[in-house]
Amino acid sequence: MCYVHRCVFVCLRVCAYVFAHLSACALPCSSLTPPAQVSPPQQQPLSLALNSSDAGLLLDVPVALRVFSVDYHHVQAPFEIVLWIMLASLAKLGFHWSGRVPAVVPESCLLIMVGLMVGGVIYGVRHSAPPTLSADAFFLFLLPPIVLDAGYFLPGRLFFENLGTILWYAVLGTLWNVMGIGLSLYGVCLLAPESLGDVSLLHCLLFGSLIAAVDPVAVLSVFQEIHVNEQLHILVFGESLLNDAVTVVLYKLFESFLRMPTISGVDVLLGGCRVVVVGLGGLCLGLFFGLLAALTSRFTSRAQVIAPLFVFLYSYLSYLTSEMLHLSGIMAIVTCAVTMKQYVEANVSQRSNTSIQYFLKMWSSVSETLIFIFLGVSTIQDVHMWDWPFVCSTLLLCLLWRALGVLLLTAVVNKLRRNAVTFRDQFIIAYGGLRGAICFSLVFLIDDFPKKRLFITTTIVVILFTVFVQGMTIKPLVELLEVKKRKRALPTVSEEIHSRILDHLLAGIEDVVGYWGQHYWKDKLVLLYYSFLIFTTRWQPTPQFSLVSKCDLHQCSNGRPTKCISCVFEFEV
Amino acid sequence: MGSRASTLLREEEIEEIKKETGFSHSQITRLYSRFSSLDKGENGTLSREDFQRIPELAINPLGDRIINAFFPESEDQVNFRGFMRTLAHFRPIEDNEKNKDHTASEPLNSRTNKLLFAFRLYDLDRDDKISRDELLQVLRMMVGVNISDEQLGSIADRTIQEADQNGDSSISFNEFIKVLEKVDVEQKMSIRFLH
User: Fold this and answer.
1) Ramachandran region of residue A64, left (φ > 0), alpha (ψ -120 to 50) or beta?
2) DSSP structure string for B73-134
3) In chain A, positions 411-440, which contact chain B (CB-CB < 8 Å)?
4) Contacts A508 to B, Cβ<8 Å
5) Backbone CA torsion sign across A346, A350, A351, A354
6) Taking a C-beta distance cutoff of 8 angstroms, is the pair B123, B134 a contact?
7) Could you give the C-alpha distances from A126 to A24, A25, B122, in angstroms and in order?
8) Integer-rounded Cα radius of gyration of chain B
9) Beta bridge partners of A485
């Protein structure tokens, strides 16, 4: 085992070394910005391959016919991208073979460490900073697959049951954190005018808006390994997905305030309206594309092979459209995925369903790995600006404000919930507020100003702290606090049946009492969903499209009964 | 006894109901106004037709059985006491009740009583056993016409097989409790009654 482990790491080093030398040649590549530019070129066209075709031709007249030649420039951009992806994947393979390490250290930490190593190697070889993650590449290529995967496999029922609480945390919690962190950081800057005097209130608020947001990628990768109970998981995870709307708006708002000469109260009010517009706009776009995808999937029966493609195309289109309109891309893509999932699964063949699931998992896995590795690589910078008060106070304030926020918000929301969020759960929610690559990319996008380097360094420190310290200790803490964990086994057939009967019973009792509780709204929503299905896609619960024909009910007696039960009861309305 | 005034709730009655069911004063009065609004005949009791007039209950697959659960054995009218007694099963279990000593009689909303209520939904003939036929009836009500009898039969067989421990091809109450031990019944079978 040790020998294999060593082999893999040697291979990685060799790859990195080779790659470092290759990239010492000219860099017309696009997704990796050369480190000399601090603000990444937003207008740089993402030419992924083809601008080097001319350079490939040999300019000098050959004396004799070349039998063998190397033309690196011709393939440089895709070659480098593939090498990075290969590095990421080999690293991932390496960890799972490295004995007890994956049990203690979460994958994200290990990947960042590999990134640090590779960055260090590149720095050592080239004596200049390694390529950093460009914000465009991150937001346009690396983030969407992860969010799509998260949205597609979102446990819908649990999500909607807890939607109120999730929105409460996402919107109000993020606002609380942003304002708190921004204002207190400004206080810190006022207290240390020699070093931090030129950081204005708006800058602090801007910084607060990007550092306060919980990152879905980091949360997903850490929480996947700790198996807490589903309610807790969906609360943290749902919050990290939905707070994107607030974060995007606040960030852009403060950024435009920074560019404006004066700010009036009206502007602030307009900013508030924008939160609503961004959130709802993303939602509506996602719904629109989701329903389009549902409609399209109905007609794919004659060309089943390309059916999965529509899922990806429509989701990505919804993301790009909302980014174009400066709406919340994450909300759009999540809504699209949630909307189209049920319809697509009903309309598309079993094989296509499996392909969709596997491709989603694969892409999101690659993206996630790449993101963490680049986080590590980008940490090796030429110039870091360090300021003890600022960095330490940012760290402390992030933890403090999040804890306070969770406590206060939960105290209010528990009065309205049927099953309260316990103190242990609250602790995990507060502690599980990990920051990740979104903050990192956003900080690079800030307009240049003297203290920008400080912000970048601080962001890196916060991200590394949350991912390493919080990520590594959350698992032992969950054990220590005896937080309720996820049930390991799938529910048995009896449990499924009786649970559903209880649901109907409770809905009936709520009707008798005249109380419009959870069950009432759930029933209404389900009714709406099915009537929509029937009206828009001309779907009929005929045997041809019904899920019952798809699942083999003989499995009931053999091995996988619960799959058939959920098929059977999916259309019980 | 035709005027409404005489059917208004008296304080002693509220106290008795409070003791029996554990509801608070305001909850009882609120539920009483609901009871009165359902009671179209204004005679202080509800009949099956009164329940069937509730629109959402009519489309609930288990609607008839739920209505039946309110009526005691072979009676056609239920008064307010009986109404509250049935609803008491769905009161959430408070924290301070969890530690009550076991010598006191079990409150109506204990886990066992909740499960007994659910059990009686299946067990129509009250023989304390859920037979294969009774299970099939309930499944058929929930699933509709899409599933064939033999598919439904295999689901029912599997359900009984998982629960049955003494081999009598039916589910007794104890077996029912055992099967649902991992399900959070206290939370699932509770409604938040407004104060």
Assistant:
1) beta
2) TT-S-EEHHHHHHHHGGGSPPPHHHHT--TTSPPPTTSHHHHHHHHHHHH-TT-SSEE-HHH
3) 418-419
4) 56-57, 60, 62-63, 66
5) positive
6) yes
7) 7, 11, 76
8) 19
9) A228
Phi first, then psi, for residue A516 (nearest 5°) are: -85, 80
Which residues lie below 8 Å from residue B110, measured CB to CB, with a gap of 6+? B93
- Residue A264 sits at φ, ψ, to 5 deg, of -115, 170
Calpha distance A33→A134 (Å, rounded): 6
> How far does the CA of residue B1 sit from the closest CA of chain A (Å)?
26
Q: How many residues does chain B have?
A: 195
Per-residue confidence band for A561, with pLDDT thresholds at 50, 70 and 90 = very low
- Helix and strand counts by DSSP (H, E) for chain B: 12, 4
State both tokens at B169: 């091809």
The whole-angstrom distance between B104's CA and the closest CA on chain A is 26
Comparing CA positions, the residue from A221, A1, A20, A3 lying closest to residue A117 is: A20
User: What pTM was computed for the model?
Assistant: 0.68
Contact partners, residue A560, CB within 8 Å, separation at least 6:
none
A288 burial (CB, 10 Å; 0-12 / 13-18 / 19+) is: middle
Joined tokens for residue A170:
């996402």
Contact call for residues B165 and B150 (beta carbons, < 8 A): no
* A164 contact B CB<8A: no
- Cβ–Cβ < 8 Å for A329, A322: yes
CB proximity B54 to A under 8 Å: yes
Kindly report, residue by residue over A265-279, the tens digit of the pLDDT: 787 788 778 888 888
Q: Quick check: helix, strand or coil at residue A233?
A: helix
Strands B78-79 and B129-130: unpaired
State the Cα–Cα distance between residues A547 and B9, nearest whole angstrom: 52
Q: How many contiguous H segments (helices) and E segments (strands) does chain A have?
A: 28, 2
Ranges in chain B, pLDDT < 70: 1-8, 95-105, 144-146, 194-195
B-chain CB neighbours of A559 within 8 Å are none
**Nearest to B17, CA basis, from B1, B35, B29, B5:** B29
Tell me the CB-side half-sphere exposure of residue A111, using CA atoms within 13 A.
Answer: 29
